[in-house]
Amino acid sequence: MKIGYPCINTSIARETKSTFRLASYSEYCLVEVVRNNLDHLEKILQYNVRKSLLFFRITSDLVPFASHPICKFNWQKYFVHRFKRVGDFIKKNKIRISMHPDQFVLINSPKEVVVENSIRELAYHCSILDLMGLDSSSKIQIHVGGAYGDKPLAMKNFGKNYSALLSDNIIRRLVIENDDRLYNVSDCLRIHDLTGVPILFDSFHHRCCGNRDGLSLSNACQMSNQTWKKNDGVPMVDYSDQAPGYRKGKHCTTIDLDNFRRFVLQTRELNYDLMLEIKDKQISAIKAANALCSLGMRIAL
DNA sequence: GGGCGTCAAGCGTAT
DNA sequence: ATACGCTTGACGCCC
User: Fold this and answer.
1) A80-97: per-residue pLDDT in tens?
2) CA–C1' distance A13–C7 (Å)?
3) Could you say which nucleotides of strand B lie within 7 A of any protein CB atom?
4) CB of A100 within 8 A of CB of A60?
5) What number of other Cβ atoms are within 10 A of residue A68's Cβ?
6) pTM for the whole thing?
7) What is the pLDDT of residues A245-291, one digit of tens each?
8) What is the distance in angstroms measured between the alpha-carbon CA of A248 and the sugar C1' of B13?
9) Backbone φ and ψ of A149, nearest 5°
10) CA-based nearest residue to A95, from A31, A63, A39, A47
11) In Å, how far are A12, A149, A294 from A154, measured between CA atoms?
């Protein structure tokens, strides 16, 4: 099992800004920010290797406005060697990589323009992973999308657009994640049957958000994991925990190790890489890795 | 140099 | 009707 955390390391300060406003877009600004973002990403990855955290989610904001029409600059070509260098480091250290496009990536939207924008955004995510030379085990995870007043139709439309509109390069990386309100694991399994898309199991969404479908945690996790094929790599699982005293669904600020151990023991027959979606990022990831060791389980490889 | 209004993108739910 | 959460906060103007 590899343990990871998303996008940001709270202990590595940024020396420069990571993005900018659309109103201040310029090629100069883009080049500077992307260069700095790649430098910063390398620092985080080096830290992660030192700490044996070999799973990481790369931020979608690595290249700001990459899928926006304002961006005419060929950043792919300009930064080809920098991306390759990061990718070589990732491969050399066997780091597992995921990306998670934002909530407006909706491939089942009834609005054609939303679908078009979503596909452009997915293509952007792919190009990051492609430029790094990473194989199809590097995944791009999205939610199924909206229900649009007719959930069965919305699911059918997901399948339709998936097959008709997505390029092979997107399909080889794309996975869907059960969400906290609309599409639970059973729904995702139905969409998997339609499309073959693997399911990334989110334990928090499954467990705590009124999204139960009668599947036990270990069954839901196992059935999701079985949708991953050989070329998809080890199944990925997202983990978080309820922030005590807050609205249902709010992520906790730091990991509760008792809950974490319980989760690990319930799923101990299964093989997966675990992404900890917890506010304090690498701090909880390190705590979790230590907890696994004390349970006699082995992290990384 | 700190405070805070606002920031590309969609949807569903709560108020 | 409007605000909010989602999540990765953080830019950038204002004082």
Assistant:
1) 999 999 999 999 999 999
2) 19
3) 7-13
4) yes
5) 13
6) 0.96
7) 777 777 788 899 999 999 999 999 999 999 999 888 999 999 999 99
8) 13
9) 80, -5
10) A47
11) 42, 8, 45
